[in-house]
What we know:
Chain A is mainly beta.
Amino acid sequence: QVQLVESGGGVVQPGTSLRLSCAASGFTFSSYGMHWVRQAPGKGLEWVAVISYDGSTQYYADSVKGRFTISRDNSKNTLFLQMNGLRAEDTAVFYCAKDGVGTYLDHWGQGTLVTVSS
Amino acid sequence: QSALTQPASVSGSPGQSITISCTGTTNDVGRYNYVSWYQQHPGKAPKLIIYDVSNRPSGVSHRFSGSKSGNTASLTISGLQAEDEADYYCNSYTYSSTRVFGGGTKLTVL
C-alpha cells in the first residue's frame, strides 16, 4: 500500500532555513508527480508546490515562490521541500501527497509540523 | 491564486442530504473538469473522496457525489451519518498549472 512519511519539521527562527523530506513506498515513485500542501494551526489547506514525475517541472503557490524549492531523488524514493527565509506565517503542518494523474492528490502523508518563532 | 469559495459550515441530521458548494473562476473550476474533494477528520490527514468533478475512488461510499455547473462545483452527501462529521475541502487545477484549495467547510451532523 502507498505510504508517505514526512520528516524534518521543527522549531526554527524567522529568516532561517529548513528542509523537509518525504519518504515514499508502495508505488513506483518515479512515475508520479508529487505535491506539498500545508495547513496552519486551525486553518484550511493551502497548496504549496508540485513537481513532475522526473523532476523537470515545478510549480509554486505565489506565497512561497522564490523562497521554497521542491525537488526529488527518484533513486531514493524521496521528495524534498527546501524552505528559505522562513516567516511566522509559514508555521503549519506540511503534508506531502502523491499526484493521481495530474488532477488530484490521491494519497497523503501524516504531516510534519514546522513552527517559525523567535 | 485566490482560494476557492466554500461555505464555512453546513449541518444536517442523520439520514438527510447536504450539499457543499465550491465557487471559483473561469481560470480554475470553470475551465477544467479537474475538481477534487477531500475529507479531513480532526488531527488526521486529508482523504480524497471525489476526483475529476464526479468520480469516486475505490472504497469511497456511494453516498458521496460531485457535480459542476459553470464556475461552481458541488459535493453532495446523502444519508448523512455521524462519521461524516468532518471538514471538507475542494481543490481545482488552474490555468497556470498550479492547484488551489477552497477555504474548507465544517460539516456538523446534528
